[in-house]
Amino acid sequence: MASEKLTEYELKRLENIRRNDEMLAALKIQSKATELFAAAKRQRVEAKSYNVKSEKKPKTETPVVIRRSLRSRGMPPDSKGLSDDSVDTSKLKDESPTKFKASDKISCPITIAYDEAVSDRPLIEAIMGMSKRETHSRASNGEVFSGSKDGDFLNDKREAGSGVSFHTEKRREDNAWTSLQLQSLTLKAENVARVVPGRITSVRFFPSSNARMIVAGNKFGNVGFWNVDFAGDEGNGIYLYRPHKVPISGILVQEHCLSKIYTSCYDGFIRMMDAENQAFNMVFSSDDSIFSLSQPTNDVNSFYIGEGRGGLSIWDNRVGKCSSKLALHEDRINTIDFNSRNPHIIATGSSDATACTWDLRSINGDQLKVLSTFTHKRAVQSAYFSRSGCTLATTSTDDVIGIYTGANFEDASTIYHYNQTGRWLSSFRAIWGWDDSNIFIGNMKRGVDVVSPVERSRVMTLQSPLMTAIPCRFDAHPYEIGTLAGATSGGQVYMWTTAEDAS
């Protein structure tokens, strides 16, 4: 027999193996390990309480998940947004701004899929309806169709070189800018919703004069839409997609074509959500991370992109290539803003602890003429011009809001504001309200500080028991004075309105 040829040591080894196998079988170790592996795999694919809905893709491609519906998560249709405990964000990895895997890049177009149970059709119809109403309104106000393929309009009532739309000029003529009473701003329960899971990195109002819709992007690549005025029988007006896989760095909704929403991301992509064709199309791709995205009001076909270590790329959407690549800063550009009075003047805020103004008419190769440099002790998270273009406000992690006025912004003053948000919150970025009178910025006590550039101090704080998280990123509705959106690191959006609008 074969066993007679084995040594005593080998026989003992075979006996030990047999006894170990019997012990493992009795303890059911193998089956438990299989169950554990399957559970761990499910947790990596989807967050707690989310059932991922597959999208419709061509047969030759693997489906990409881009939205998770409320109903598929077992939530009642009348819930106001995502519940506080619907997502266990501790199980989701916080991606580094500059390091991500190549597999995180989704280069193919992503379709907007919907089914009969939870339909995206109300969102698509709402966006297309807004776009058509705005087009009709602009035509009625004397705006002229430019004839471009994007359906853009040119305003023949705009001041030469001002870059300010007719609606804005009309409101200024009515002296509506100075009519806002800060004490009238209020927060109602129906104006609070969780729009995306996890930390919001960018929030924007649709620039519509006849509707209120908010779009927010988070650190996981999700883009959420909240139709505040939703009045349907099913759902709550909140829709969630995932066109990217790492943090969203910018959102751009074109005022002249509301059906096209652009998102930039740390993955190096800019995607356009085309509501009419129901797809997220890839517009721009970079080997570096994209940290900021902006567009001048007088050129709807150009995108200004802050990418890599201080680079600024100017993308011409008509020809599909960059017209210029400029080296402006030593570190990432966090914001790019255009001056409403002189649209060829831009301001950039950078992590190299400086903010700068530049003249786009002086491009020379990969260099650009700097007009002014404003130095901080730590990273500059934002640099925004006031509505008139006469004042510049910067926000830095050195606990300072910088105010710069004068012909060349040479008159400088600083306002102390605690800006240490830490790694779990999005950085504070002070934004201008509806005129040059007030600046809005979040604070660590779950409030919104209102800062007066004239008085060089905080004049009041917006607080409410309904605000249960720290608001970090803001946007002011461009057509509704007193309507302010604040976004948090928990995915909530708080919309402040005037008492008249809220009643």
From TrEMBL:
<protein>
    <submittedName>
        <fullName>Uncharacterized protein</fullName>
    </submittedName>
</protein>
